[in-house]
Design brief:
Substrate Binding Domain Of Dnak, Chain:A, Domain 2; PH-domain like; Phosphatidylinositol 3-kinase, Chain A; six-stranded antiparallel beta barrel; 21 helices; 49% helix; elongated; cell projection; PH-like_dom_sf; Oligophrenin-1
């Protein structure tokens, strides 16, 4: 599992996002860098996990194996020697007892000396065997528990790290979720525009509109009057909207005719009434070069609509319930309509959940607009009455703004506003948009201020209506701004239109407090050569935390390895047991809510006493006191268990139903260290006595002699 996670982490580290467009939003930058943050987080967790697994071998398995080999194995050797010397002594003693008393005195004395010598060897073997049994029985109490305790310390250190990483990850997760939600909203808004564009392109497949090329181009038929009558000539036409120039190239040119390409400057364009001509799809244009009107025939109704939109023809927006040209401008009736809608929303719908995001009925919207913009009594509609719900009012306001002949923020400034939103310099964004707002015509700036003030009021109630500045930007970005040419590239810039509106809402007070000192926009910053000023969000980096040295290395080597650590704690070399040069440090200013108190967390960290214990285990068990391999001077007191608290054995027979006894401590107060006590499974054994080999138990006189002959040093 750990290996699979490591491979997954490497995949995330090397993964690269591909984006369409020349610039990324701040949210897209956060998303693009998120996999690297995930990879570092997984790497740090798996690094600590691998160290924990290695600690299981170095701190638990190896010390227990060493105890078994060195202590228990040595005891078995003592037992063999004792049995061998015992057999030898008893056999000699039997032979000695069978000696005849009639033998010479010198022979008897020599036999007595040999028996005394074997008896002394046997006594030494028995004493060494008994002493070794006693040493094993006593030392196993701490030599076996200490490795388990050290391993548990390593295990809880790993768990403590994952808890602290989780606490550090939560703020990053919330910010990333916000970026994901904003990006999803931009995607939804862009997808709707792209679907609408695709639908329009299917309706008029012969019309091509490309950026940097003629605004619109395609085939048109021109009515030409001759002496003998009227004829229709087919032309390939290219119209440049900015220069208002129309280039007409004849297709079916008659042989010998001198007719060539015509370059005309457009003055006006008017739809031709159907009942005034016997041809369909016709419209009239006036030019500076020719007197009178020129009648053109498009290929279809949809094709005629596109030509007239490009030429600013006097043709209503397709399917628009507003039918009069003067009603498509920012006139007095339009301002009255916007103010009435704003007053109605702020009076009875400002806390409505999803206000402006929820769409009203299209039939009701058309009914409201037709009633309000009725030429006989314009504006004579009471929006405060119960006849109009909030969804209908908000949808009508958005429809009116979107179907103006020119958007509130004008076609002229559209490109500059988008470029300002694309800037990586946050100060430049605000400064450029601030300056461009005051380049708008007076009516447009007044309408924009009216709308943005209203959106600010809406966002102030975001806890109730759940509409943040980012959400309002997604809704009103395409409403207040739109490109003059419908292209896929223009659709991809919708997310930056949303950012412009979001900036206007967030900095309304500064922008509308007055024009900037210099009314011109700041110069465009040079291309990026250094790091982006708006840095992507990251998981919080914790400062280094000191930790005692638990392995065979010098302090200087430890410092060198600390320098080789990555910012998130990953090392270049293979991990060493319980060695992390950087661990999560306690945060300044106390404990955070929901986290364990500092006292309980500190018990899981490297305590000096436990550090000495682990150091002694890794040095191979019990060693003479003195200077350890890592240069730390240890005292003889370290050979005793530092964490053992001697407690009297609980008395049998006094446990209640819940396993309580009178020796169990009372509930500890805050700050006291916990003491783990467990009721014994069986009553304690009687007072321990030194184990005696079976053969010695049969010879009490030998045991007594052993005590008399035991050296004082022993």
């Amino acid at each position: 599992y750990s290996s699979a996670v490591q491979k997954f982490s490497q995949t995330l580290q090397s993964f690269q996002f591909d984006f369409i467009g020349d610039t990324l939003t701040d949210d897209e930058i956060n998303i693009a860098e998120s996999f690297k943050e995930f990879a570092e987080l997984l790497h740090e967790v798996e690094l600590e996990r691998s160290m924990m697994v290695q600690n299981a071998s170095d701190l638990l398995i190896k010390p227990l194996e060493n105890f078994r080999k060195e202590q228990i194995g040595f005891t078995k050797e003592r037992k063999k020697k004792f049995e061998k010397d015992g057999e030898k002594f008893y056999s000699m003693l039997d032979r000695h007892l069978h000696l005849s008393s009639k033998k010479k005195e010198s022979q008897l004395q020599e036999a007595d000396l040999q028996v005394d010598k074997e008896r002394h060897n046997f006594f030494e073997s028995s004493l060494e065997y008994v002493y070794q049994i006693q040493e094993v029985q006593e030392s196993k109490k701490f030599s076996i528990v200490e490795p388990v305790l050290a391993f548990l310390h390593s295990l809880f250190t790993y768990n403590n790290l994952t808890v602290e990483l989780t606490q550090d990850f939560l703020p990053y997760k919330q910010q990333l979720q916000l970026s994901l939600q904003n990006t999803r909203n931009h995607f939804s808004s862009t997808r709707e525009e792209l679907e609408d564009l695709k639908k329009r392109m299917k309706e008029a497949p012969l019309t091509c509109k490309l950026p940097g090329q003629p605004t619109i181009e395609g085939y048109l038929y021109t009515q030409e009057k001759w002496a003998l009558g009227i004829s229709w000539v087919k032309y390939y036409c290219q119209y440049e909207k900015e220069a208002k120039t129309l280039r007409m190239t004849p297709i079916d040119q008659k042989p010998g005719a001198k007719q060539g390409t015509l370059d005309l400057t457009l003055k006006s364009c008017v739809r031709r009434k159907t009942d005034s001509i016997d041809k369909r799809f016709c419209f009239d244009i006036e030019t500076n070069e020719r007197s009178g009107t020129i009648t053109l025939q498009a290929l279809s109704e949809a094709n005629r609509r596109l030509w007239m939109e490009a030429m600013d023809g006097k043709e209503p927006i397709y399917h628009s319930p507003i039918t009069k040209q003067e009603e498509m401008e920012l006139n007095e009736v339009g301002f009255k309509f916007v103010r009435k809608c704003i007053n109605a929303v702020e009076t009875k719908g400002i806390t409505t959940e999803g206000v402006y995001r929820t769409v009203g009925s299209n039939i009701q919207v058309q009914k409201l607009l037709n009633a309000f913009f009725d030429p006989k009594c314009p504006g004579d509609v009471d929006l405060q009455s119960g006849d109009w719900d909030i969804k209908t009012i908000t949808s009508s306001l958005k429809f009116y703004l979107r179907n103006l002949s020119e958007p509130v923020m004008t076609y002229k400034l559209h490109k500059e506003l988008v470029q300002a939103a694309k800037s990586e310099n946050l100060d430049y964004r605000l400064g450029a948009i601030h300056a461009l707002v005051y380049k708008l015509p007076d009516k447009n700036r007044e309408m924009l201020e009216l709308l943005i003030q209203h959106l600010v009021n809406i966002c102030e109630h975001s806890r109730e209506n759940l509409m943040s500045p980012s959400n309002m930007g997604v809704i009103f970005g395409p409403t207040l701004m739109r490109a003059q040419e419908d292209t896929v590239a223009a659709m991809m810039n919708i997310k930056f239109q949303n950012i412009v509106v979001e900036i206007l809402i967030e900095h309304f007070g500064k922008i509308y407090s007055g024009p900037p000192e210099d009314t011109t926009a700041p110069p465009v910053p040079p291309p990026r050569v250094a790091a982006r000023r708006h840095k992507p969000i990251t998981i919080s980096k914790r400062p280094l935390r000191e930790r005692p040295l638990f392995f065979d290395a010098s302090v200087e080597e430890s410092g060198a390895e600390r320098l080789g650590q990555t910012p998130n704690g990953g090392g270049v070399e293979a991990p060493k047991p319980l060695h992390r040069s950087r661990l999560p440090a306690p945060r300044p200013g106390g404990d955070e809510p929901g986290r364990p108190p500092a006292e309980s967390r500190s018990q899981l960290r490297a305590e000096p006493e436990l550090g000495k214990l682990v150091s002694r285990l890794q040095d191979g068990g019990a060693k003479p006191a003195g200077r350890a391999a890592n240069g730390v001077v240890t005292s003889p007191a370290l050979r005793t268990a530092t964490l053992q608290n001697r407690r009297p054995a609980p008395r049998p027979g006094i446990y209640g139903r819940d396993g309580d006894c009178d020796s169990v401590p009372k509930p500890r107060s805050h700050g006291d260290k916990p003491v783990i006590t467990r009721p014994p499974v069986r009553p304690p054994d009687p007072p321990c006595r030194t184990p005696i080999p079976p053969k010695l138990e049969q010879r009490p006189d030998l045991i007594a002699g052993t005590a008399e002959e035991m050296p004082s040093s022993v």
